[in-house]
Amino acid sequence: MTAPGALNSAAGSLYVVATPIGNLDDISARALKILRDVALIAAEDTRHSQRLMQHFGIPTPLAACHEHERDEGSRFITRLLAGDDVALISDAGTPLISDPGYHLVRQARAAGINVVPVPGACALVAALSAAGLPSDRFIFEGFLPAKAVGRRARLELVKEEPRTLIFYEAPHRILECLQDMELVFGPERPALLARELTKTFETLKGLPLGELRQFVESDSNQQRGECVVLVAGWTVPESEDAVSSEAMRVLNLLLEEMPLKRAAALAAQITGERKNVLYQVALDKQKGE
Ligand code: SAM
Fold first, then answer.
1. Distance of alpha carbon 131 from the chain centroid
2. pLDDT the model gives residue 82
3. In angstroms, rounded to a whole number, what is the distance separating the alpha carbons of residues 269 and 263?
4. Distance CA 4, CA 203 (A)
5. Is the CB of 166 under 6 A from ligand 1?
6. Domain ranges in the chain?
7. Which of 229, 93, 235, 97 is nearest to 165 (CA)?
8. Strand partners, 169
């Protein structure tokens, strides 16, 4: 039994290896070396990954790692504890990012196994890096619920989120998704659709949501392939720009005593002003200082 937090030095390492999201040249030299050197590769779908291994001439055995079978991780843990190095890969991109691997990584860390990230392609980061939307702070929402009611409820929850929003979406739902975003966030909100990143038909289209929905609606080719949707964060509408002088006074006092987020929340409680508005005001004030 390993003490909590202590590394089991007799065990092998679990390498969490990113693979390409389309263009095979995006695999790193380090990833290839590790995939060759480990005793076993835990893969989301062995048949899918077999093609990648064949392409790069990697003979390492593959074994399926199904996220829904939580106990399945234990056979990899047994190999790791016996001293074998294991690599975890998913079908594309970075494992655990809307992909399997969480339970295995968690179990490995709990067993004191050295878990090593081997970074590489990730669709959300690739899209954000080229979107021209604020990237200093963002939130990743993964996949939205498939049904309209759940999807709209989820969008309502992040409607006034000031950070850039990033979503994954399946091609057969992209139009419905954009329609609901337009409905909830409004047609003017800046957005970007990143489709088929790193592949032949790569498209990055940045438009206000209403126009982006129209663009996708009028061209069925835009409803094909893999896609990431980015939406600019909420900004204080002009009419709400003027925060009452009382709220400003309370906010300024609290900002001297506590972190920004807490100060905005407390000032909102005291003055009845909206928390998001005060938070944005405080952020702007901080940037201006
Ligand atoms: N683990 C992956 C990563 O690191 O990005 C994501 C896996 S998730 C199951 C698949 C989703 O990622 C797709 O539905 C799409 O939203 C996004 N995605 C993956 N590859 C993409 C690509 N080449 N272009 C645009 N989006 C992509």
1. 15
2. 96
3. 10
4. 47
5. no
6. 13-121, 124-231, 238-288
7. 229
8. 227
Confidence tier at 69 by pLDDT (50, 70, 90): low
Between residues 121 and 235, the one the model is more confident about: 121
Q: What is the phi/psi pair of residue 269, to 5°?
A: -65, -40
Q: Which residue type, as a one-letter code, is found at position 22? A: G
CATH number assigned to the domain covering 13-121: 3.40.1010.10
pLDDT in tens, 183-208: 999 999 999 999 999 999 999 999 99
Classify domain 124-231 by CATH number.
Answer: 3.30.950.10
- If we measure between CA atoms, which residue out of 47, 139, 42, 55 comes closest to residue 96? 42
> Is 229 close to ligand 1, i.e. is its CB under 6 Å away?
no
Question: For residue 116, what is the DSSP state?
Answer: E
12 contact partners, CB below 8 Å, separation of at least 6: 39, 79, 80, 82, 83, 84, 85, 86, 113, 114
Identity at 24, one-letter amino acid code: L
> Which protein residue's CA is at the shortest distance from atom 26 of ligand 1?
227
* pLDDT at residue 73, as a whole number: 64
What's the whole-model pTM score? 0.83
